[in-house]
Amino acid sequence: MSVSIDVAGLRPERVAVVPSPLAELGMALHALSEPGHHPGLRGWVTGVSARLDPHLADRMCEADFLWRTTFSDLFMPFAGLPGRSTLPGATLAEDLDLLDKLTDEQFVDAALEFTCALPYCSHGPDVLTDASLRRRALELAAARGPRQLRFSERLLDDPPRIRAWLRQFLQDCDEAFFAEVWSRLRHPLTADARHKTELLRRKGLGEALTATSPALSLDEAAARITVDKLGTGHSATGDGGLLLVPTSLGWPHLSVLHRHAWQPVLHYPVGSPEPAAPTPVEQLALRMTALAHPVRMRLCRHLARSAYTTSELAQAHGMTAPEISRHLGVLKKAGLLTTRRRGRYVLHQLDVTVVARLGGDFLEGILR
């Protein structure tokens, strides 16, 4: 389970690390809508919510699925422009001007991502002209709720009207709270971008990605970036570039824009409490599967209290030693056991530290 980016032929000068005020506004809206994802921002969320104009708060709910349910690519419009090498704007107004440059088809496709109605990694029909796809999009929107259906109907009937509504809404958010946030965050984000750019210049893309997030890796032989995500997808830089966009509000989310024909973007958190080596999604799945078996759960009850040999566990559970060994092997492969030798005996014990982290690892894995 991962998202991959083919970087064959990517020239070093086509890799850029640049903050985006519009992408950061998208993360701010997400944190306000899903504060449970961002416990470290609880104080900021409480303060902004308390002083938010009720009318703006109501408007924020009209299309919150664009930043609550998904991280809409509309917040990174620079990636969709021709040439696939456009950089984010230095100001929110510049980013919004880039949003205006997307075609109606691009805008609608990105806005309807929350319905999962359209192909993401490949080219598909145009929902504005394909009647069957339009019906399917509205059916999926209706399944999500009446607000989603009303928004989708207005979007498909009159894209310019929704585009104007969204731009005005984002400008009002800037005036209400985001301008102050951006004035505080843009300097550390710019400093991080400079640091990553220097790493790119001095040590190459692999080192820069490792410093960006332990969930990113580069296979230089295969010319492929792999992002450890609970999901699959693929993209390619082709004749375009690769963008790394830092966010101060994003942890634990590591977002990958891999929409067909758009410039790939890695939207990564900075200043986060991410551990040096986060548990890979495959390892997390292995651990949860290992613990799901009733026999292994009973074994864990013993192994959490003390260290036991295979023979002792076999006697306690009324099973044969080979049967116990097979279950211990599954737990050990999942990284849930520690073993030590005492004379000619091998003692097994549950690694309670690893088990205690499972909840946090699971939450980080699915939110990443």
UniProtKB/TrEMBL annotation:
Upper classification of the source organism reads: Bacteria, Bacillati, Actinomycetota, Actinomycetes, Kitasatosporales
GO MF terms, alphabetically ordered: DNA binding; DNA-binding transcription factor activity
The lineage's top-level taxon is Bacteria
Q: Which SMART domains match?
A: HTH_ARSR
Concerning InterPro entries, the annotation shows: ArsR-like_HTH, DUF5937, HTH_ArsR_DNA-bd_dom, HTH_MetalResp_TranReg, WH-like_DNA-bd_sf, WH_DNA-bd_sf
One of the Pfam families matching this protein, by short name: DUF5937
What protein name does the entry list?
Helix-turn-helix transcriptional regulator
Specify the HTH arsR-type domain's residue ranges: 276-368
Protein keywords? DNA-binding, Transcription, Transcription regulation
Record Gene3D superfamilies: Winged helix-like DNA-binding domain superfamily/Winged helix DNA-binding domain
